[in-house]
Specification:
This protein is an alpha+beta fold. Helices cover 36% and strands 25% of the residues. It contains eight helices and 13 strands. Helix 1 packs antiparallel against helix 2.
Length: 318
């Protein structure tokens, strides 16, 4: 008996860029019993902690997916949670690692389906029938403002706070991620990239490069994308992963693809004063906001009682 499998072409490349001495990005490809995994991670933090975070997260994800049973919609978020906790533990264990974290965009291609787990501002795109579509939504300060209609996409690209991340892997013990699926067709192409690419090249230029020579090897296309990002200035590390679906067949087992729900990135307020580095903003949880409001009212009541008491004492003295 012959079992048909989805025919894929996969290529990946990472580059430190023109201004960074160290490359804090990682990408990976791994064959799983349930399909093909591809991922990118963009680490953040000073003193090499960004490189450590993305490397540790990648290793933990790959090892976890080898051990965890279950279909992609079950195994991928569990593996990403393990990856998250590995980075969080490392950050808590060593003082020099405090505050480190990483983005992660991971895709398992299982037959005619892609299951995507996403945290941060790395991106997944789908190129289909000559159209490029951003599948993931950035968990960043500027992206939140764009979704609120307060700034435009062009303003976000040039904003001094474009590196402020509102959700990152390893920043807290419990992971918050987007998990969703996409049905695939013959001829589809998936692009994963760090913001070193997406910040330098607009979507229409990405599409032009990808479609320029459809017969060219994907590795050459990945190199062209990286080269153009560097020619545009290359201020950040650049990672690219390309997956071309030559033939899509039904997935190994029937299951319902998860859909993209509410954005886990919290509403954000002010940002750090120094916009040069990448930051993770810790959200104010609703469970802590209510006690703070109660404390404010309590202080007001005590102040009023104090004023009344002082007034009574002054009247008694008269």
């Amino acid at each position: 008996m012959t079992v048909a499998t989805t025919a894929l072409e996969i290529a990946g490349l990472t580059d430190s860029g023109r201004l960074r001495e160290m490359n804090e990005d990682h990408w990976a490809h791994q064959t799983l019993p349930t399909g093909e995994l591809v991922m990118v991670a963009d680490g953040m933090g000073g003193h090499r902690t960004g490189e450590i975070a993305s490397s540790l997260a990648t290793e933990a994800l790959l090892s976890s997916l080898k051990e965890l049973p279950g279909l992609p919609p079950e195994a991928l978020p569990r593996a990403m949670q393990r990856s998250n906790f590995a980075v969080y533990q490392q950050s808590a264990r060593r003082a020099e690692s405090r505050g480190m974290g990483t983005t992660m965009t991971a895709v398992i291609v299982d037959g005619n389906a892609a299951v995507i787990g996403h945290v941060g501002d790395s991106r997944a795109y789908l190129v289909r029938d000559g159209v490029i579509t951003q599948l993931t939504r950035d968990h960043s300060w500027v992206a939140e403002k764009v979704r609120q209609g307060l700034i435009t996409e062009l303003e976000a690209r040039e904003h001094k706070w474009r590196n402020v991340i509102t959700n990152a892997l390893g920043s807290r013990p419990q992971l918050r991620l987007d998990l969703f699926g996409v049905d695939l067709r013959d001829g589809d192409l998936i692009l994963l990239c760090s913001d070193g690419l997406s910040n330098m090249l607009p979507d229409d230029r990405l599409l032009e490069i990808i479609n320029h020579d459809a017969a060219a090897p994907l590795q050459a296309t990945a190199q062209k994308l990286v080269d153009e990002a560097n020619e545009a200035g290359g201020p950040d590390n650049i990672s690219v992963v390309l997956v071309r679906v030559h033939r899509a067949v039904p997935r190994r087992a029937p299951y319902r693809l998860p859909s993209l729900g509410r954005d886990p990135a919290p509403a954000v307020g002010d940002v750090p004063l120094d916009p040069k580095s990448t930051y993770v903003l810790e959200p104010v949880e609703e469970t802590t906001a209510a006690p703070r409001r109660n404390q404010t009212w309590l202080l007001v009541v005590l102040l009023v009682l104090y004023v009344v008491l002082v007034g009574l004492l002054l009247n008694l003295r008269r």
